[in-house]
What does this fold into?
Amino acid sequence: MPDVTDVKSALRGQQIELPSWAFGNTGTRFKVFPQAGVPRTPQEKISDAAQVQALTGVAPRVAVHIPWDKVDDYAALSRFAADHGLSIGAVNANVFQDNDYMLGSVCHPDPKVRAKATAHLLECVDIMDATGSADLKLWFADGTNYPGQDDIRGRQDRLAESLAQVYTRLGPGQRMLLEYKLFEPSFYTTDVPDWGTSLLHCQALGPQAQVVVDTGHHAPGTNIEFIVALLLRAGRLGAFDFNSRFYADDDLMVGAADPFQLFRIMHEVVSAGAHRPEAGVAFMLDQCHNIEPKIPAQIRSVLNVQEATAKALLIDRPALAAAQQAGDVLAANAALMDAYNTDVRPLLADLRGDMGLDPDPVAAYHRSGYQDTIIAERVGGTQASWAS
Ligand code: RM4
Ligand code: MN
It folds into this structure.
């Protein structure tokens, strides 16, 4: 069995990135339900994210989404984050909420619309420069709804052209992370629907372009850990957007729908040594908390990622390798299941003790009084929301 000290030190080094938008009001296409105490400003979102970091100790970065987190002075925003114990993670571009983008953004048939979308992506790189962010994260809603609506190959050419312009603008330590999604909001074709399309574009661009795997962006039944293994092998797994789904892009708390799938994914990650920060895989959360209180839900997600990682670290890898080599199917499977069925909560509570943290971050949050404070203080103004 792996040495507990090694497992703990790996878990201590893990870095999970929080999405700023998870702290704002979100919902479905039917309704956004407002919650008391929700942030009105990017700074208030960062303050909330800082609570998650303070209580878990493994969430030191917060991703921003532009223009939802637009400010006049991004360097000041980065300093504000630093004062709260955080740094700015990925800068997420938004080319899906402007009226001009009805027929697409960087794949739009009109070059003027493509230029506008590309200019926004370049603006996001400026924001990376100002904040010290290393990652530009791109997700495109582009696609078509009807056969014949547009030229499928032509749209790929337009996409490649825009991505190349943005890629050239990246600094040496900066990456472009290209996310894919099977469908929605487009229902016939999506311009970046799968990991293969994303990978082809990344390979054409160069080594600073990497694929993002959002766990909610596949057809039901897709073997996500297989995709993860292939991307790791190709050196192109840039990041995860972790969330859970039962049906489509549900964006539920990480590990809520299928903790076993999360474990299988983390097994591939750990077996490649890619859980270590220096491997360059960003473990981002991408969630929308519709009905649950946001800060404790983010804490829950962080804990669920930690639990899956701990279980993957506990796999007896020499025993697994020996069983695989011997063709002992049952023993190989048992090596995984023994680790998965281990209750790692005492180990994680112990680790938090070592880190000077409360062993139960959710309970500590409820005791802290932070929720009451923000409900009392955040009155008036416009609550942050993905709908605006
Ligand atoms: C998209 C995609 C992006 C996220 C937005 C909010 O579906 O997952 O990563 O930035 O939603
Ligand atoms: Mn995502």
Observations:
- The CA atoms of residues 134 and 174 lie 5 Å apart.
- The chain is about 45% helix and 10% strand.
- The mean pLDDT is 97.
